[in-house]
Amino acid sequence: AQTIANLMRSNFFPLGFAFPKEIRNVRDLLRRRHFFVRQRSGLITHSKLTFYQQGITDNPDSAFKNKQQRKQLSQLIAEEDVRLSLDSNLQVISFLDDIINFLEKTIIQRVREQDIKSFALLQTIPGVGEMTALIIIYESCHIGRFKNHQNYASYARVVKPERMSNGIMKKGGNPKMGNPYLKWAFGQILHQARMANQDIDRYYLKLESTRGKKKARAIMAHKFNTATYFILKNQTAFDLDKFLNRN
Fold first, then answer.
1. Residue partners of 124: CB distance under 8 A and separation at least 6
2. How far, CA to CA in Å, does 188 sit from each of 89, 131, 217, 221, 244?
3. DSSP 8-state class, residue 143
4. Of 61, 185, 186, 190, which residue is least crowded by CB atoms under 10 Å?
5. Are 78 and 58 in contact (CB under 8 A)?
6. Distances from the Cα of 227 to the Cαs of 86, 94, 198, 222, in angstroms?
7. Residues 67, 95: contact at Cβ < 8 Å?
8. R_g of the chain computed on alpha carbons
9. Which of helix, strand or coil describes residue 169?
10. Burial of 152 from C-beta contacts in 10 A (0-12 / 13-18 / 19+)
11. CA nearest 134: which of 229, 235, 23, 20?
């Protein structure tokens, strides 16, 4: 205890940030919703593979997302055992749909009670919907706890981490440092933003042609992260001209 106290006194053992209880509870609920969504996506992928194995390739994503169409999918399978396997997947998907929908309604109600303004402002970013906005709000918590946007970018894993000792850069990094949920969120925004806004799509394609696909995606994730930081800090709407460096 004395050693830890001395480390804290000399700032060699800095204290971590403790999420407020009301934020932490909703954040954990949101993470559980994320887990169920991943489980549902895995079941849908397995169901598609089942159709491919049977030589059936004309089943769009909408057929799995629509409950009425989903009930008719198993009728396309002739083999009884294969049909049973598919039916079990579809039943669990329907069950997860109900759970996910209930959790989403509950979480949206919580954010309306706690931080409705930030929730609305984040959705001014092209490609950011309700669920992405919720992830950003509850995984970031108070944006003021980050000294600047670079610290926020590091926390969100949108920049390459560095490993240093005594001022000397070491090989390798710390890929698991930071928040994986924010990393996922900022990685997903680009796809939706390109469909929602032609200017962002053209900007990305230009980056991709000069920097390559991987580097271009990393740059865009960092830009969305920076825009998010200042939106939450200044409580202002998304500025497309600043985002595209047109000012």
1. 231, 237, 238
2. 26, 11, 10, 9, 19
3. G
4. 61
5. no
6. 43, 37, 18, 9
7. no
8. 22
9. strand
10. buried
11. 23
Contact 116, 91 (CB under 8 A): no
What is the residue whose two structure tokens read 């930071």? 178
**DSSP conformation letters of 173-208:** --TT-S-HHHHHHHHHHHHHHHHH-HHHHHHHHHHH
DSSP structural state of residue 164? E
Q: How far is CA 30 from the centre of its chain?
A: 11
Q: What angle do CA 17, 19, 20 make, to 5 degrees?
A: 130
Taking residue 82's Cβ as centre, other Cβ atoms within 10 Å add up to 15
Q: What is the pLDDT of residues 193-227, one digit of tens each?
A: 999 999 999 999 999 999 999 999 999 999 999 99
Which two tokens mark 117?
Answer: 């303004």
pLDDT surpasses 70 at 66: yes
Q: Is the pLDDT of residue 167 over 70?
A: no
Distances (CA, A) of 6 to 3, 17, 233: 5, 19, 34
Sign of torsion, CA 39 193 131 187? positive
pLDDT in tens, 118-127: 999 999 999 9
Top-confidence residue, 238 or 168: 238
Token digits of residue 151: 């610290």
Tokens of 140: 């970031």
pTM of the shown model: 0.82
- Is residue 93 a contact partner of residue 64, using CB atoms and an 8 Å limit? yes
